[in-house]
Amino acid sequence: MNASQTLTHPRLTERVIEKSAKAAQLNIAAYGERALHGTFDEHLDYAVSYAGSAPMLLYVDPYGRPPPMDRLASVFNRRQGQITELLVHFSRAALRNARSDHSKLRDAMGGDWLADFAAGDEEWHPRAVHRYCEELRKRVVRLRGHPVEVRSRWDGPVRYWLVLFTRSEVGTAAFYDALPAAFQDFYDVDQESQRALREEQGIPTLFDGIESEPTSVKAADRYRDRIREQVGQNLQELLKPGQTIVIADQAEQVYREVKGYARSSDIRAAAKALGYEVGASQRWRTTITRPM
Fold it and tell me: 143, 148, 166, 179: which could join 85 in a potential S-S bond, CB 3.0 to 4.6 Å?
């Protein structure tokens, strides 16, 4: 979490854990007693105890491999019946660097399964992320994992994966609905930092101000029809005649290739374009019915 962006919502209370002494000092200056210096493992029990029975979002953003999987699973298992969600920054670099010695990731991955991936397989990263989700789900009843690829541009390489773990369909729906705005913030900051770096290093900025394939969610607006067409294809494959689904329950299959770009309004528009019935019994419980 950026130390300059404190949370001010009166109903939210955060605890920020930072291993780096320098970064911890910045956090302490911004958060005071809410900032903790040390490892994730050292302070996890305190953070869980502090949350008590209140809803808890645990955001893990490591510089390297994730924390031990069993420790993450223990958070959910200790908080049975309480709203608990886990957001993990899953680093592509951590996977790549540790592949030569997968024992480094044994605790984080929940086993030695990383060794099963063929050395010549260039598509192993996304499969590894999905396997990670499966391993954590084995340890927690009713847990769902939702991995999302984060890129610097529409057609660019994957920078990292953002994975939400939740037992709630409400948390799932809110996550997918929030992604486009979150991606926009990420792209804006990323583009600005790259521009500043080029100017600092005196690199010519010939292409500044010229937008190629979308580098932001705003630019994805020009592809709105394609996004809705893709969602329509997903819905046709997912629903049989006469079948009804709750979008949140089938979010992975509904969004698929356009996660992070499709808005909830795109899902409704795509369904209506197919002649499907869209229900709105309550927030986050939108239904879609394919007619007979």
Answer: 166
